Structure prediction request, 218 residues.
Amino acid sequence: MEKRYKIGLFFVLVLISVLLVVLLWKRHTMDGFPNEGDQVEQNQAKPDVQSEPDDQVPKTAEEIYQVQKMTARTTADTVCIYENIDKKDGSMSVVVEKLPAKYIGLNRTELENLLAEDSLAPTLAEKQKGFKSQHLELFSAEKIKVLRIYDTTQETTGFYIMEVDGEVCVYKHDKTTLYFKTGLRVEHLPPDVRYELKNGKFMDSELQVYHFIESYSS
Prediction:
């Protein structure tokens, strides 16, 4: 009888233990892990500190080069290379000079703007050499390269005195552009001069033209 009682008591204790385990497990699953929710919220709320700066930092050599090129400025040690091209015959010459003082301390955009301004108002010496335009070809803190275009073609000048409808007229060197009408009639001129005017009498300068007109206008 006592043996049965002990066996029954044992099963009761086992049953109670199982019930306790079940209750604790249910409570655990309903409440969840105490730090799990907080961990997820913290991870979601925490900003991605690395992603944003990474988007702004150049990742390739080309990007790094572009950034350096944008921030570079000329200095007193920057070498200035002029590549001069003559439109007359396509000849080219290269001149290496010290960077002019007004070009020191400029970035690429500032230098391009200043070169464009200088193109619109070249010096007298540059005009006499046939200067036409210039633009920046290469830029870095170490050296710059400027392409300058010249045209040394000698401009044709002179005038032609011609007879048109019985009147003496002055045309430019192309014989088609009227310069002015003299009001002088060809019948007042000597025969040999009238003959010259049929094909046009060439004069080198305006001074010669005015001397001719004065000679036959009185």
